[in-house]
Amino acid sequence: MTIDEKLEHFYEISLEEAKQDAEKAIQEHKEYLAQMLEEHKTSRRQSAEAEVKAEAEHVRREVNKALSAEQITLKRDWSRKQEELKDDLFAEIRLKVKDFMSGPDYIEYLCRQIEAVKKFAGEDEVEISLSPEDSDKAEEVSRKTGVPLEISGESFLGGIRAAIPHKNILIDNSFQEGLETMRREFKFDGGLKHE
């Protein structure tokens, strides 16, 4: 083998080795890039999932906040409407009470109330008051029951108030007290169960 042939052979072997080294380097670089791409995809996917999760949580909180605010508004409106209805109802009841007080059954009602108080007091002294609205009925009621009646200095819409000083007892059978008690205890019940 001549020097030229040796050189040619050396050149071919070197070229082959350089080609193999280059292919190996290119392959390693491709694998490295593919690995980097996968890591980048995984990282971006995790980052996107975290962003979506955070945004979903933020939206959920905002929806809950808006829902809570709307519930408060609805409850406030509902309470206000109930108060309006309650006002209307008790205004109507007051009118019915006034109608009852102007009728003939009212005198009998007052007499029954006074008789019940007398029975409760027994032998003890009783002071019975009528509301100023009933001053025109006092004489007739007193005559029917045999009990002297006083006219109260304050209006209590009708009915009677009685005191048994010896036992330190006050009996308030006034319409005003009854209406106030009913208003305090009044509840709106609704739905199919109560209809």
Concise description?
The protein is of the alpha+beta class and 195 residues long.
Account of the protein in words:
- The chain is α+β, with helices and mostly antiparallel strands.
- It is 70% helix and 10% strand.
- It has helices at residues 3-102, 105-121, 138-145, 175-185; strands spanning 127-130, 149-151, 159-164, 169-174.
- Strands 2-1-3-4 form a four-stranded mixed beta sheet.
- Strand 1 (127-130), helix 3 (138-145) and strand 2 (149-151) form a beta-alpha-beta unit.
- Helix 2 crosses helix 3.
- The N and C termini lie far apart (118 Å).
- The mean pLDDT is 90.
Keyphrases for this structure?
195 residues, alpha+beta, 4-stranded mixed sheet, 4 strands, rod-shaped
Name the average pLDDT.
90
* Rounded radius of gyration (Å): 49 Å
**In terms of per-residue confidence, which ranges show pLDDT below 50 for 5 or more consecutive residues?**
none
Structural class by SSE content = alpha+beta
The helix content is: 55-70%
Strand content: 5-15%
Order of helices and strands: HHEHEEEH
How would you summarize the topology of this molecule?
Layout: H1 3-102, H2 105-121, E1 127-130, H3 138-145, E2 149-151, E3 159-164, E4 169-174, H4 175-185
Helix pairs in contact: 2-3
